[in-house]
Amino acid sequence: MADPAGRKWLYNHLATLHVFTTSFASNALVMAHAEGERNAGLRLVADMAEANPDMYLQMLKEMYSERSAPVAGGDPADPTDISGDSSAGADEYTRYSGG
Questions:
Q1: In this structure, is the dihedral angle defined by the CA atoms of residues 78, 80, 83 and 86, taken in order, positive or negative?
Q2: In degrees rounded to 5, what are phi and psi of residue 91?
Q3: Is residue 14 part of a domain?
Q4: What percent of the chain has pLDDT over 90?
Q5: Does residue 58 lie in a domain region?
Q6: Looking at the domain assignment, is residue 89 inside a domain?
Q7: What is the per-residue DSSP string for 48-78?
Q8: First CA to last CA across the chain, in angstroms?
Q9: How many CB atoms lie within 10 A of CB 18?
Q10: Considering the domain boundaries, does residue 91 fall inside one?
Q11: d(CA 18, CA 38)
């Protein structure tokens, strides 16, 4: 976690485990699978926060600042501008809802 690239990889790994989003799905089996992945991710978060809380917080700060950075051609202050990263959640929903 001392390397910024390592923190970015770890954050992305936690995101694939649904740590930062809901694991809700209309299909109970799909939701149970996603919740199992989330449980593994939450255990990893607890281990990281215990081992090095400062680096864990640094990772979150870096990822927040990266995600809130302006997108080329987009205005982050304009809530009607859809050129940002708002479609990421839609991909996850489609993946787990079967839609």
A1: positive
A2: -65, -45
A3: yes
A4: 64
A5: yes
A6: no
A7: HHHH-HHHHHHHHHHHHHHHTSPPTT--TT-
A8: 36
A9: 21
A10: no
A11: 5
